[in-house]
Design goal:
Blueprint lengths: L2 E22 L8 E20 L3 E3 L3 H15 L4 E8 L9 H16 L6 H7 L8 H7 L3 E4 L11 E5 L6 E6 L9 H9 L5 H20 L3 H19 L11 H12 L3 E5 L6 E5 L2 H17 L3 E5 L7 E11 L1
Parallel strand pairs: 3-4
Antiparallel strand pairs: 1-2, 1-11, 2-4, 2-5, 5-6, 7-9, 7-10, 8-9
Length: 329
């Protein structure tokens, strides 16, 4: 007769994030970076974790999931093993924050299954996340549009200064290159170290754009003014990072071509998320987004690119408890 054993599993859905730029790469005031970004409702990482006899992971990004399990167990002194099923994963190294969302999802699930609850400002650094930006951690926690205060002398992630809802009607068109990856890992560390110094004037201008244009326009749902600020921030930050991207503000210049064409047809706030290659534009309504998608999806495809319509996500990661039944002899 078959025996049935019930196991508790935790399912986590974690949102991608867009990193819209830095405010201060000068650092004279004792803080550096200062990020702006937002959570989006797609793509997302969806995984489930349950206790097991030995560590096992399946699905996309399974190797990274196994490393995350080993890391969280050692860091927090957890006992036992875990089985991770990754049902869907944010594309890796595409500028969408995949590594942070996977690490936080695995760690959160493993800790809760072990009866441990730790705040994300503890989990993030332990999982080696939030070293420069708090956007990914904040997106996992609450979603929305986020501004952080940059990295000071502390090892803690940057403090979140603003976290507010994205207008429900707005849409973002992502411009994806599924065949390429942006700068990451050791190359990213080296690229930051090699960047030219940013002038205090530029840092002040970027901070001014964020505080006095982008954020109030967002809160008033003024997409034209918001988009103007984001485009200007992206232009300035893109110039600064061009030396690490072959002289271009875009890791894939074809992404920039499509973004500019979308802007000519009414999209605003164009740019590249993080190191790319993912690009983005903002539009005011879902209908406008679909009209632009229909007009440019084939042209994007001819360049090896893909368009995706997404919305801002005003909630963080979703964690659900599920009971699974295993049948044995």
């Amino acid at each position: 007769m078959a025996d049935q054993t019930e196991h508790q599993a935790l399912s986590v859905t974690a949102p991608a994030r867009l990193h819209l730029g830095f405010m201060d790469l000068n650092g004279e005031l004792g803080r550096r970076y200062g990020s702006i970004g937002l959570a989006v409702d797609a793509p997302s990482t969806i995984l489930s974790v349950r206790k097991a006899d030995q560590d096992h992971a399946s699905g996309p990004e399974s190797a990274r999931a196994l490393k995350a399990i080993a890391h969280v167990r050692q860091a927090f002194g957890l006992s036992g093993a875990y089985d991770v099923t990754v049902k869907r994963a944010i594309p890796a190294h595409a500028g969408l924050g995949s590594g942070t969302q996977l690490a936080l999802a695995v760690a959160t699930a493993a800790l809760q299954l072990s009866g441990e609850r730790r705040p994300l400002d503890i989990i993030g650094p332990v999982m080696e996340r939030g070293r420069r930006s708090a956007i990914g951690i904040a997106a996992f926690e609450k979603g929305g549009f986020i501004v952080d205060g940059g990295k000071g002398r502390s090892d803690a992630p940057p403090p979140v200064l603003i976290q507010t809802a994205m207008p429900e009607a707005w849409r973002i068109i992502l411009i994806l290159d599924r065949t390429a990856t942006g700068v990451h890992g050791d190359r990213e560390t080296e690229a930051f170290a090699a960047l030219p110094p940013m002038s205090r004037t530029t840092a002040a201008h970027l901070s001014h754009l964020v505080l006095m244009q982008a954020v109030p326009a967002l809160m008033e749902a003024d997409i034209v003014t918001f988009g103007s600020a984001i485009s200007e921030i992206q232009t300035e930050v893109g110039k600064h990072f061009a030396s690490a991207q072959g002289g271009s503000p875009w890791s894939n210049p074809n992404v920039g071509v499509i973004a500019r064409k979308l802007a000519q047809r009414g999209a605003v706030g164009i740019g590249q998320s993080s190191w790319g290659p993912t690009g983005f534009v903002f539009v005011e309504t879902e209908k406008s987004a679909h009209d632009l998608f229909q007009s440019f999806s084939q042209e994007a495809k001819a360049q090896g690119l893909e368009l995706m319509i997404v919305a801002g996500r005003n909630t963080g990661a979703a964690v659900e408890i599920r009971n699974t039944v295993e049948t044995g002899q």
